[in-house]
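Revision sheet: structure tokens.
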Amino acid sequence: MSTRAIEFGAALRKARRSKGLSQAELGGDKYSGSYISHLESGRRVATPEVVEFLTRRLGLSALEWGMSSRADMSRLDAKDPIEDLLVAERAWSDHDWDAAWRHASAAADAATAAGDSGREWEARYVMAQTKFASGEFAEAAVLAEALADHQTARRFSVARAQALSLASISHRASDRLGWAVAFGARAVEAAASCPPIILAEALMSLVSALSESGHPTSESEPYISRLIELAPQLNSDHSRGMISWALLPSLPAT
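Predicted:
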């Protein structure tokens, strides 16, 4: 069941009852009472044609349904993106870049059609990660930059920080070091109030960019100190190991 279908079903039930109709009466000669019941419970998804029939049957306008256009109605039967997204994430973990890209793209399209901006951002983030992991760094940077300005990233600092960190490491991998530093700095700013693991990721992207681009160690020192302070707060050995790896080029030789 999709959330949108459940919400529509609840609105349908309320409207039907307000008109004093049974489910069979609402369906008339076209739809069975059982089908109307499935719509009201969210177990079935109404197509735009069904919505138009019910609108006429109940004597309601599209605005009374909370749908101002046929495009809004068509979102009811949009494919749920979750299955493609789950497959994409599994394919990514298995290094199957083609499958990860294909399913993440399908999930992003489905989420867009359903008006689910959060799920769309998540799917496009997997797409950007896939481009980076497959060595297409410039393409990953373009996708990550767009994600940083996405409406979901404007609402959630974690999403914005993750997108900016990915943009930074993608630019660094494609030898655009000035851009890597700039996006790393923006990532650190966005992650200021985020959980330690997100802030650590942003700090690592900036420290690595500063080191690789030849900035003096004095510029990196404040961020290195913050990383060292954060390390004990991370439960993952992998995350602590990544911090140690990121700090190696910045530490003085012994």
